[in-house]
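Appendix B. Raw example, untouched.
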Amino acid sequence: MRKLGKVYEGKAKILYETDEPELIIQHFKDDATAFDGKKRGKIFGKGSANAQISSILFRLLEEEGIKTHFPSDMQDKKILSENEILAYRLKMIPLEIIVRNVAAGSLAKRLGYEEGRILKKPIVEFYYKSDELGDPLLNADHICELGLVDSKLLRRMKETSLKVNEILKDFLAERGLELVDFKLEFGLKDDELILADEISPDTCRLWDKRTGEILDKDRFRRDLGGVERAYQEVLRRIKG
């Protein structure tokens, strides 16, 4: 398999075409951004850590019956290098799904909760992936009005996200990590709903269950220091 031209470059990843049209290569970068790109920097080893963490967690979800963008018939080729993963090319749905178990970040501000307050049940939020509009929070009526997905597919996305939450919460708790909240993205392959993108300290809030120490990208956002150590600690625990 040969890596061909760049398909897309985002804040954290570069996508490359391959000589197999249905497959792409995800290259995870060490670049870090926050606050809609207003804060920029590099986290040494982040790309490698996120690629490995995502690979482990997607494999876990596959084993639990969640369809992911990993090609299941090419197990030995999923990880191509320390910071590159093979994935199916999908028609991406322009929504970010946030699942929240604990009040933190913008939710704590919106509800007037102190950070760390356990929610009565997981809260699922939808955000429109639009740089021009600033990725606004949407409800189901907004999504249908915009024609992003129909109500049936939106319901499946929410149900799948909650199932992913239960699987990841249990897995991470066994490794001393509290899954505070996380982001998911989905795409379609032959009209089948597929979990895509990544699951990593870039897209999750992860706290040490015993001490409450932040072990995710908030260390970069809030200038807490020890960012590289936090990412490597998450990788160490997830690898077991």
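End of appendix B.
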